[in-house]
Amino acid sequence: MASVSHVTIRKRVAFLFLVISVIMVGLIGRLLYLQFYKSAWLSENAVDQRIREIPVEAKRGIIYDRNGRELAVSVSTESVYAIPAEIRNPEETAASLAAILALDETNLKNKLKRRQAFTWVKRKIDAETARKVQLLNIPGIGLTQESQRHYPNDNLAAHVLGFNGIDSQGLDGVEMTFDSYLKGRSGSIVIEYDARGREIPHASHRFVAPVEGNDIYLTIDVVIQQIIERELERVMKETQAKAATIIAIDPRDGSILALANKPDYNPNKFSEYSPKLWRNIAVSNSYEPGSTFKIITTSAVMSEHTVRPEDRFFDPGEVEVQGRHIHCWKHGGHGSQSFTEVVQNSCNVGFVTVGLRLGRESFYKYIDDFGFGRHTNIDLPGEAKGITIDRTKATPINIATMSIGQSIAVTPVQLVTAVAAVANDGKLLRPQIVREVKDKSGQVIRGFQPDVVRQVLDTSVTKQVNEILESVVSQGTGKNAYIEGFRIAGKTGTAQKVGAGGYSPDKYVASFVGFAPADAPQVALLVIIDEPVGLYYGGQIAAPVFGAVMKDVLQYLKISPQLSPSAKSGTTEAHVLVPSLINLSVPEAVAELKKAGLTPRIEEAGDRIADQIPKPGSRMPPGGGVLLYTMTPRYVAGEVTVPDLTGRTQREAADMLAELGFVINPVGIDGKDGKVIKQDPLPGSKVLSGTSIDVYFE
To answer: C or N: which end of the chain has fewer Cβ atoms within 10 Å?
Structure first.
């Protein structure tokens, strides 16, 4: 019996030892698991329970214009945070805060109940709301300073500057492309707590100071930016256009002096605007440039010696290419003219002829060299490449239409950069928007020098092209861009917009591009007006905007007026005003011109003047020639909106109707003192160009 008991005891001891061994192995295994596999997780959780780290946001760098004027700054603001472990009553806390901060109480309560060391309640609140939160004095709820972006000029240069998100990250414009320079490095406040969530008085509290971002100086000049935005506002109001863009660039170094689109938005309140308005159409939208592209065609044919300025052309009104008829804008054509006059008159037939002479390979060489169909690499987001037909698939009709600015789509920044190359002795430069980046001590950490892409044209060629473009403004379709005392070079453009199934009959883009002074360019300027209502010719609505902007810019830059060629040769003759001759009989028009000291040149046959170049009100040197067109207006046939003539004098009504291609039929008194009381057809009616409008005077 004793031996049995002894055996049983031994078995029990062995079993107990086995159990203890298994437990020990398990504990050792668990210890090894925690030590080697979970140590980082445990350490992190231990720190989370003991350490509270409150972020301190760095202030973004300031954005200045080229002269040191502030365009974007960061201001201090308060943000509300929570430490859920310290909150005793989440329900009551959520109710109190939700009422002040306009938050959803249920969502806030769930956030405050989460097991986390830190969470934001609401960020970047105003001073009065922050004061109300502070007065609540709720445990676990605190305030910390953050920075908020502020744009002191509101909408000014919005598409250049862009805007920031809630974490002060750049989301558009320069704020986005130079975010790494502007954002700085965030800091933090580190506080140690005990197991019950109480702050340890003499623990190792630590403040990691944030590092402010670097400052950026743009190439933009605030004054020039204000000038172009003022004119954009005016032209948008007058033409009721869908959109408009102006870009000013210094052709000598490629720096953008001003860039604006309308409609725009206020970056201080960007979320209140449609995202469509955030789009910088100056770099992101492609469009058919129309006749402004003829500057490129002119440069190409002159460079390749395909044509000389004095070479003669005959324009019968249309030209046939591969079975398609390309019409000139002037009904009946321009007749015999030199190539210089082809450019002055923006003659489609002449440009198609020289474009086909140039040939596909040579034409595409200049399209490529000027940078069309590829990015300009301007430091702004969302840049488009434009659209060009594949070189291998281009046919003669494609070359013909590209010669006049159709069948090719460019961005505004591409076009103004290419024209700036023509102004800059043929040297193509990358357009730049940032001048330099400085740290807070004022040291330049990144500078931007003129970035030459390639030499596109010889200097001798650009001199000839510039002289021809200057004659476009002094004698051709660009007369409304003329500025007294200055030599202006430029080109008008009117392009039909492409729609479903072809070109839209009633949607146009009016534009003007040019530079000044023509002999030593300092500013190149592009004006684009998208879908204007009523008048839509570039020479009529875009050229005057160009002239108004350029006049103020030249005055601001303190560029002195230049003497006219006649004055330089020793005479003192001033430019004379071109009178309005439209609807006068031919003898009356000739007499008016001789009285003004100008020379008439009559085109076609007819009894009355239907149109004239230069336009009424233009200025030109004494003895200059004025083209007088009879029989038919210069405008192509098609439905045109009849304007409201009420209250106009007979001369004013006649001029307005002639501008649109209508013929006036005055009814009532026969004189210049009467006023229009009614008309037939009524204002707003759609009738064919060339229609006779009955106008009643009293």
So the answer is: N
DSSP H helices in 33-126: 39-50, 90-101, 105-112
CA within 13 Å, CB half, 660: 27
Q: Identify the bridge partners of residue 284 per DSSP, sorted by sequence position.
A: none
Q: Cα separation of 698 and 694, whole Å? A: 14
Q: What is the DSSP letter of 483?
A: -
Q: Which residues pair with 55 in a beta bridge?
A: 188
The sign one gets for the Cα dihedral 456, 460, 466, 468 is negative
pTM of the model: 0.72
Burial class (CB in 10 A: 0-12, 13-18, 19+), 165: middle
**CB-based burial label for 392 (10 Å; 0-12, 13-18, 19+):** exposed
Burial class (CB in 10 A: 0-12, 13-18, 19+), 188: middle
Task: Output the CA–CA distances (angstroms, integers) from residue 430 to 105, 413, 669, in the order listed.
Answer: 54, 10, 61
Residue 426 near residue 459 (C-beta atoms within 8 A): yes
Q: Read off the tokens for 596.
A: 């003004």
Cα 460–chain centre separation: 32
Instruction: Give pLDDT tens digits for 122-180.
Output: 888 888 888 888 888 888 888 877 788 899 999 999 999 999 888 888 899 999 999 99
List the one residue out of 625, 631, 629 whose CA is nearest residue 593: 625
What residues act catalytically? 291
